[in-house]
Amino acid sequence: MTTSQIVVVMVSVIIGAILKSTSGIGMPFVTIPAISYVATIEEAVVVGALPNLALNLALVWAQRSHWSRTRDLARLGAFAFVGGAAGTFLLVSLPEKPLIAVLILVVLGYVALKLASPEFEVGPETSHRWAPVVGSAAGIMQGAVGISGPIVVSWVQSLRLDRNAQILAVTVLFAAAGISQFPVLVASGELKGLWIVTLAACIPALATIPLGSRIRDRLSSAAFDQFVLALLVFSAIGLAWRTFG
Per-residue pLDDT averaged across 160-187, rounded? Predict the structure, then answer.
């Protein structure tokens, strides 16, 4: 990568990591579109994979005490792990635009439902039944296009968890998909020539955790939910602009 490309990688990782450290999501929303403007979409997914995984694992560890307040998390994570490996194999062969179009429609549909019915909640029986579908879809999207946040966050928000349990849930799913995604990237040779950049990007990503935690503590529960919902809307707009603009 050139110096200018590396600068874009580092700046986008820092901005995305601050959002993620605050809300549990946001890093791929920033890094994938930004890096794909100066490199290929495959390179953007590959370069962002390791710092995103490192940050997810760090956040999972930090929020681990809230596991009992999540729902179907082990079930969701197992299917996200399988989906992440499958999606990574499809990275270079699966057409991107149809996947992104479906992802955008899912996000906008959830946002519309949330605005129309703020108290909407998915019950325990429904969440258990749909956990394999949601987990698999999230993993496939993470592996294929590097972005699964809209699916994961829409689902987790609908479970009405408290903010720390919500952050734990989304980061566990992202981490599960990332753990299965990264070895496939290594084995397929996708990281050739990109190792130094992706390893270096882990440093600023992890350094944002204290800042994100402080920002999160200053937000009320309502403000936190609104912040996450706004991130979903901006992610849909950004994806549409990058893919179809």
Answer: 86
Amino acid at 78: A
The pLDDT assigned to 54 comes to 95
The Cα 59–Cα 195 span in angstroms is: 23
| Amino acid identity at 148 | S
Alpha helices (H) in 117-220, listed in sequence order: 124-145, 149-158, 163-187, 195-207, 209-217
pTM over 0.85: no
Q: How far apart are CA 163 and CA 49, in angstroms?
A: 25
Q: Are 80 and 136 in contact (CB under 8 A)?
A: yes
Model pLDDT for residues 31-62, shown as the tens digit of each residue: 877 887 888 878 888 898 899 999 999 999 99
Helix (H) or strand (E) run with residue 96 in it: helix 96-116
> Reduced to 3 states, what is the DSSP secondary structure of residue 2?
coil
CA distances from 192 to 1, 13, 154, 202, 227 (A): 11, 20, 34, 17, 37
pLDDT, position 17: 93
